[in-house]
Amino acid sequence: MRSHLLAHLLYLLLAAGRDVTGKEVDRKPNFVLMMVDDLGIGDVGCYGNDTIRTPNIDRLASEGVKLTQHIAAAPLCTPSRAAFMTGRYALRSGLGSTGRVQVLLFLGGSGGLPPSETTFAKRLQQHGYTTSLVVSGSLSLFLALQGSDILADLQHALRNLTMLLVVGLFTLVCVHVCGLFEVSLWLFVALFFLSILATAVWCMPFKLLPTWNCIIMRNQEVTEQPMTVETLPQRLLGEAQSFIKRNVDNPFLLFFSLAHVHTPLFKTPAFAGKSRHGRYGDNLEEVDWMIGKITETVDSLGLANNTLMYFTSDHGGHLEDADSIIGQKGGWNGIYKGGKAMGGWEGGIRVPGIFRWPGRLAAGRVVDEPTSLMDLYPTLKYLAKDTQPDRQSDGYNLMPLLEGKVDRSEHEFMFHYCGIYLNAVRWHPPGSDSLFKVHFFTPNFSPPGAGGCYDTKVCLCHGDHVTHHSPPLLYDLFHDPSESRPLTPDTEPRYAEILEQTAKAVERHRNTLTNKQASDDTHSHPNADVPSVQSQMTWDKILWRPRLQPCCGTFPFCGCKEEPTHI
Fold this sequence. Notes:
This protein is α/β, with parallel strands linked by helices. The protein is built from 14 helices and 17 strands. The chain is globular, with a radius of gyration of 27 Å.
């Protein structure tokens, strides 16, 4: 009798085990996406750097798949990240710039993804995923500082207006006192109050900008304002680790967007002075430590075999960013020409791309085919078994390429935008190793002969800021990845065919836009395209609005403090 009961119990346990195993097999994978801000592809050990220590990032590459032609959709934060999250060129979301302002500057602005757009997080939520974006509200300020020359121009213009009003008021007083002609009292009063108003507008927003923009939010609530910069890296890491631990038993998506290595650079004591490349190197080695901690958390919880981990940068390093005290504050883009905000030059758009998934992806695999940050959207959809209809996509599911089931990327053509302007196109001809890139225009470096736009720190995409090329500049990236030797009809037998095929691809691409039309700058820039979606980069949407300002406490005197969570 006892043996019969034991046998029956053993059967039940085995049956339960089979159920558990079945559930494990059927369970959807987790996703941990890690994105660094302004990281150059040449900054990382597994991409050729031998002077900055990145053992944890290198470990991800050795245990997974490394992409060597991973391309951002734009060389600047706002359009690149919009394309990353939606799987579509930023132009389709209205996040392509027509003028000088190319990024969203204020937390209190109204620009952003329109309601008609969707993100991979939104899609995964509809399929049972718990999602989290770990990044401080202060990131907007970090991103804003890349347009600091624009803010400086605004402040300068307001200061000039104030001075003009004050001088005008003083002149009228002198004229009135000298009896040259009568001046209305109302004019005095109007000029006086305008002077006060202009001074307030000039001083207050810029003085309070750090308080208003440097914040920490949890969901929709401001929890610290202004934030404590010194503890930010630890706090972001703690939030990411806590999210993973809370969701061990549920499929989850974590997008861990680091505030490093964008300026202003951190001064964490544990990493200060440890690298061979000043504060920038210190920050990068801190990034690597944080990536290691996230990997350690995933592995220690037994989640590695069911978690796709991804590491990248939003675009290339910022070559022009430096000062006399700190020295170089931006990254290194290796052999590739250009960098952040330099249009379609390779250094601004070729970024690290590493995927790790033990048991699913072969360790140490290297993929030399063209891929895009926009490919994450359809890849995550595929793995989450999301088969519902979607809008026009510019990315492709990467899994066949990552798993080695196919040898060719589906990206035969890629389109590189500078603002709303089609800057360059790359073509990977079928059955060929060649990779051609056509530049329709290039930014004018300043001063002339420099390697970037050092006068403004951000190259612009329109008017006199660019040089159009007719015929276009043509390079073979397979043989000339540094884009140093333009091809000619004499040096490239396929020259005419390349330009012809590229022109046809551009026409097909433009036909996929919601509404191709000329922009206000068409006469000076024939490559401008504007879809019918409302632009999110107009002054009306970019500039700060008091009613939209996140605030804890009483506006405008916002302020609150949160005790950091210890890891």
